[in-house]
Amino acid sequence: MILSYIIIVIYSVSLLLIFLYAIAQLNLLINYIKSKNKTDTSEKFDFSNPKEIPFITIQLPVYNELYVMERLLKNIGKLEYPKDKLEIQVLDDSTDESVETTAIEIKKIQEKGIDISHIRRTNRQGFKAGALKEGLKIAKGEFIAIFDADFLPQKDWLQKTVPYFKNDKIGVVQTRWGHINRNYSTLTKIQAFALDAHFTLEQVGRNSQGHFINFNGTAGIWRKECIYDAGNWEGDTLTEDLDLSYRAQLKKWQFKYLENVETPAELPVIISAARSQQFRWNKGGAENFQKMMKRVIKNENVSVKTKIHSLLHLLNSSMFTCIFLVAVLSIPMLYIKNEYAHLKMYFFVMSFFVISSLIFFICYWHMYKNIYGGGFKNFMKYIGAFFTFFSIAMGFSLHNTIAVLEGHFGKKSEFVRTPKFNIKSIKDGWKNNKYIKKKPSIHVVLEGLLAIYFIFGMYSAFIVGDQGGDFGLFPFHFMLFIGFSYVFVKSVFSKA
């Protein structure tokens, strides 16, 4: 009985935390809808007056990006901005042959009269944060635009973003990510689905009400003064962008998010690349919760509502731990519910998961509708997309839970870059990519075992109790089986 009560408590607390997070998402949806009725009255530089055009430094932090460097540099070279007010820094920590090919492309751009430099370090101390900090020491620009190697800003990108710095309180201008290979596969579709929700619902929902948001590591611009005032880049977490974002906003710097400015980028096309990216993001989120929690709570200049949203934002990745616990404990809960009649009154808490799922369904529909349009046909497509996303996201829950726990308990690990592929369509190949991790991790075996575990969960629905079974959790267990099976199969077989 004691074990049963422990399981009930852990299960119930996890469900309630998920429900609280869902309520916060619903609040962000309300904020998002309200923001559509607002007129943007932001001050802007007048670019028709040359005196108002500020000096910009573009930083390109790269590491072993053999397949995308040529594409990146050619694209950056097309940005429309006065050459006498533009500097490009290629912050190249590479250790492979891409160093030579990058140098060739840089020389071609220099011949066009563009100020571009190839900056090399003798070590990768601080990883991306260290490279950005090193480049900042010699940056000429008052504002620093940052692009990862797989991003392809439109040629008028600077003209659409830089003017907002007319307001000297603005520390960051962040743009929305686009996806050049959104429809490549099921994996890219679910990644796009999750990112679209973040870049519409969450970023707009928070920013429109003055709550803290995060610079997303790329496709945005920093005011150099803001970086220094906030304490500069630090490499003690795996998400240096989230870290500096919070330190800057705690210093009262304002962030401007531009949903209408899309910056296309490439999504990881194989699961090992997606896993490494997810691990870094989720572990970094937990690390930043530990680093920033007390600073947010104690700051007297931050409203209670902003503090709540900030803490939930920092705990975003930790929701995977709650999802994983609910998933694993749902089968014992099925047996407890049908074995101990006097405990049935406690099982109303199970309804919280249904309500939470419904809230997420509603919130994500608004995101989906903005991109693909409304109507019955698109709604039916959305239902399929939502349940595919939900299933596979739960399939990643073990992997992401391990990342989160490492982050909360302070286990340090190396910054593992996400390999790029230069892939836009199904015709483009990836199997010879030299950066692909060849062997799946031991965690993959556990994911395979969990898929079998949830087959047992579905079987249990037929045999528990004395009323011909209990099928309330059957759809949940079926989705978990699909999710863990997908992650397991793709991790084992989708490798070079």
Low-confidence stretches: none
Helix fraction by DSSP (H/I, runs of at least 4): 40-55%
Shape: globular
Within the largest sheet, what's the order of strands?
Answer: 3-2-1-4-6-5-7
Task: Describe it.
- By secondary structure, this protein is an alpha/beta fold.
- It has two domains: 2-32 and 317-493, no CATH class; 43-192 and 212-273, Spore Coat Polysaccharide Biosynthesis Protein SpsA, Chain A (Alpha-Beta Complex), CATH 3.90.550.10.
- Helix content is 53%, strand content 10%.
- It contains 16 helices and seven strands.
- It has a seven-stranded mixed sheet with strand order 3-2-1-4-6-5-7, sandwiched between helices.
- The chain is globular.
- It starts with a helix and ends with a helix.
- The mean pLDDT is 92.
Labels describing this entry:
496 residues; Spore Coat Polysaccharide Biosynthesis Protein SpsA, Chain A; 2 domains; 10% strand; globular
Map the helices and strands:
Elements: H1 2-35, E1 56-62, H2 69-76, E2 86-92, H3 98-110, E3 115-120, H4 127-136, E4 143-146, H5 157-161, E5 170-179, H6 186-207, E6 220-223, H7 224-229, H8 240-250, E7 254-265, H9 271-298, H10 304-314, H11 319-339, H12 351-372, H13 376-395, H14 397-408, H15 443-463, H16 474-493
Parallel strand pairs: 1-2, 1-4, 2-3, 5-7
Antiparallel strand pairs: 4-6, 5-6
